[in-house]
Amino acid sequence: MEAVVYKSTGSWYQVKSRNGQMHKVRMKGKFKIDGITSTNPIAVGDIVEIENETDAESTVITGIHERSNYINRVSPHNRNQHHIVASNLNQSLLFATLKDPKTSFGFIDRFLITSEAYHVPAIIVFNKTDLLGKKGQERMELAKEIYLPIGYQLMAMSLQEKNGVEEVMALLKGKVTLLSGHSGVGKSTFINHLFPANQLKTQEVSGWSGKGMHTTTFAEMFDLPGGGQIIDTPGIREMGLVDISKQELAHYFPEMRRLMNDCQFNNCMHINEPGCAIKNAVNKNSIHTERYVSYLSILDSLEVPSY
To answer: Domain for residue 167, yes or no?
Structure first.
């Protein structure tokens, strides 16, 4: 019987079969999928095959269908492993805030790179716009200046003042959407707005770190009343990139990807090589300096593979 994984708690999974029934299941044996080695072989959003065991008291996952895409990140428990956040997505919504807590453009760029690498369209939702003073408004304008020209959709929302909420909700209809972001950016409050009867725990931003505390332990899928699903994820403190080499990083910056073939050398890293179309575009302000600085910073952070 075919089913979709709605929740994973490590050893047990909640799945929904095609007839709408929920089942608590476990994995039968170990799965090695497409050479992927991750901390979780089965992720929320996976389409799996389930069957009752002979004693009929337990249901097991016997197979997994090929994924159309997935989002992964460095495992929060082991930096040498990666963790599949969710799979079979139509889009990802990154919740960001410019105050309480502050989401850096570097964090946003890492999330966008991951979405580009795994072919998941990404939308940036700036929440808590009611908290923005003059500096915050200027930073919001800078965000629009950076991300809108390169093709990313950017939404502004205040759950407190109910501004922009309906517009963000409209994006979710009929789609499987991953919700992500730092803890404390308002994901759980937004989900509570979607499902008033199913109040998730929310926590204040912790004063000592400026980051929210973790309130969601495991990823979980929810059916939307008007059709479609959302996948809530644990708050991410940092977005560690997985399986992206220094040579391919520029491919995941859309504004760089468009110009790469114009570089003098086909192995150009866009740092200080002669005839670099990317550097030329930065000098002419057709690639935003913030994005280029972000590229250099992320490039520097990527490990050179050892052979």
So the answer is: yes
193 with 96, same domain? Answer: yes
Segments forming the whole domain that contains residue 149: 70-232
The DSSP-derived string for the chain is -EEEEEEE-SSEEEEEETTS-EEEEEE-S---BTTB-BS-SS-TT-EEEEEE-TTSS-EEEEEEPPPS-EEEEE-SS-TTSEEEEEES-SEEEEEEEBSSSBPPHHHHHHHHHHHHHTT--EEEEEE-GGG--HHHHHHHHHHHHHHTTTT-EEEE-BTTTTBSHHHHHHHHTTSEEEEE--TTSSHHHHHHHH-TTSPPP--PBPTTTSSBPP---S-EEEE-TTS-EEEE-PPPS-----S--TTTGGGGSHHHHTTGGGSSSTT--SSS-TT-HHHHHHHTTSS-HHHHHHHHHHHHHSPPPP-
- pLDDT tens digits for 235-276? 666 666 878 899 999 999 999 999 999 999 999 999 999 999
Is 276 a domain residue?
yes
Domain count, the chain: 3
Examine residue 46 and state whether it is found in any structural domain, yes or no. yes
Helix axes of 289-301 and 105-117: crossing angle, nearest 10 degrees? 70
Note the pLDDT of residue 208. 34
